[in-house]
């Protein structure tokens, strides 16, 4: 076992007398059960509430475990070997000189949420009217249906309209039932779910997400959608340097459960070679430890937090009130989604499609891309 030492020097935890660990970063990267789910490694720390001037007050080393008492009253625990490996990793952002990005003009960005339009579920099987629903999805990033039959059939037909159900660790079509335990994911809990995108741990994140409600008792549990492209536009206008950094600095994310360990990384704001905004990726629950970059720790954390502060503004939130027979489809590369807390039980069918299939469906329908 390595012979470690820990001390506080100039308001910073210093490991083994040679590695100064950035305080704000360290406060956010505890390995203790209050900071991290011990099995799924999903994050429990409120990253965004950490004081920029957070400082360590005391450190205690017990073999290979470091406890840190913080100026905000919290105590975090750290696996020293893992911490040393992580904190000595270095990342530099990719070089790109153009700070801007463009957004296709045919998209109608909504900083404030539009009224919810519910399409009759019969539209799914109607070749002509289906194009109206698809156009709504293209323009606003989401489309909602009401009056669908219960069971898998409408969701499968809808996925087939776009492409095909994408298989994943959850299956091609999966049941999401509150209190279920087959996956170690926060989506199966009853607390409010911070807005995020799915599949940050996948190199090719799902393009669309389909949710079809089957059973509902109790109150709450509205779906919350945010137009991420509108938020990215507003974020860049207010803070171009930070937006530029988030187009260049890859954030890692992981999904862990017994027999599964996925990991991927990309910039939260992904811009293509032509400077067009193509994809947003942000899920703080599934974020893997941030690799500190030389001289950029605070800049990256600030940019990450500031972007989240812009897009999670409740004034941007479009709420879909659920009842059985309603189906919501949204573009997971454009919209952030979350959920309000709820009581009672709630069962959904969920399904993903690929983004290239969504783009293909737009082309086939003659919609502008
Ligand atoms: Fe999700």
Summed up, what is this model?
The chain is α+β, with helices and mostly antiparallel strands and 369 residues long. It is built from 8 helices and 20 strands.
- Estimated share of beta-strand residues: 25-35%
User: Unreliable stretches, pLDDT < 50, 5 or more residues?
Assistant: none
CATH topology category name of the largest domain: Double-stranded beta-helix
State the secondary-structure class: alpha+beta
Could you name the CATH homologous superfamily of the largest domain? Clavaminate synthase-like
Taking the sheet with the most strands, its summary is: 6 strands, mixed
Number of separate strands: 20
Whole-number mean pLDDT: 91
The helix/strand order is: EEEHEEEHEHEHEEEEHHEEEEHEEEEH
CATH architecture of the largest domain: 4-Layer Sandwich
End-to-end distance, in Å? 58 Å
Helix count from the secondary structure assignment: 8
**Ligand types:** fe (ii) ion
* Outline: globular
**Physical arrangement of strands within the biggest beta sheet:** 7-8-18-11-20-9
In total, the number of domains comes to 2
* Spatial extent as radius of gyration: 22 Å
């Amino acid at each position: 076992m390595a012979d470690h030492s820990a001390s506080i020097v100039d308001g910073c935890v210093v490991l083994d007398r040679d590695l100064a660990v950035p305080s704000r970063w360290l406060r956010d990267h505890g390995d203790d059960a209050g900071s991290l789910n011990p099995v799924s490694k999903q994050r429990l720390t409120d990253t965004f509430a950490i004081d920029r001037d957070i400082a360590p007050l005391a450190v205690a080393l017990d073999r290979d475990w470091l406890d840190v008492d913080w100026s905000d009253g919290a105590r975090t625990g750290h696996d020293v070997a893992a911490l040393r490996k992580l904190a000595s990793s270095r990342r530099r952002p990719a070089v790109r000189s153009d700070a801007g990005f463009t957004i296709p003009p045919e998209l109608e960005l909504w900083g404030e949420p539009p009224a919810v339009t519910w399409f009759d579920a019969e539209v799914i099987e109607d070749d002509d009217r289906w194009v109206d629903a698809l156009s709504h999805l293209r323009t606003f990033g989401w489309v909602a249906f009401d009056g669908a039959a219960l069971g898998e059939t409408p969701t499968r037909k809808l996925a087939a309209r776009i492409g095909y159900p994408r298989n994943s660790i959850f299956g091609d079509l999966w049941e999401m039932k509150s209190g279920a335990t087959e996956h170690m994911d926060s989506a199966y809990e009853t607390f409010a779910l911070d807005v995020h995108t799915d599949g940050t741990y996948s190199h090719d994140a799902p393009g669309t997400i389909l949710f079809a409600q089957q059973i509902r008792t109790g109150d709450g549990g509205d779906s919350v959608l945010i137009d991420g492209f509108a938020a990215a536009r507003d974020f860049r206008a207010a803070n171009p340097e930070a937006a530029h950094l988030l187009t260049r600095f890859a954030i890692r994310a992981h999904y862990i459960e017994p027999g599964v360990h996925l990991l991927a990384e990309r910039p939260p704001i992904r811009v293509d070679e032509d400077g067009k905004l193509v994809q947003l990726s942000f899920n703080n629950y599934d974020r893997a430890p941030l690799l500190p970059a030389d001289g950029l720790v605070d800049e990256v954390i600030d940019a990450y937090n500031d972007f989240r502060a812009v897009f999670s503004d409740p004034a941007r939130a479009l709420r879909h009130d659920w009842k059985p027979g309603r189906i919501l489809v949204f573009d997971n590369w454009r919209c952030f989604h979350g959920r309000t807390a709820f009581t009672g039980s709630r069962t959904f069918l969920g399904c993903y499609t690929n983004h290239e299939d969504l783009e293909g469906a737009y082309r086939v329908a003659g919609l502008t891309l």
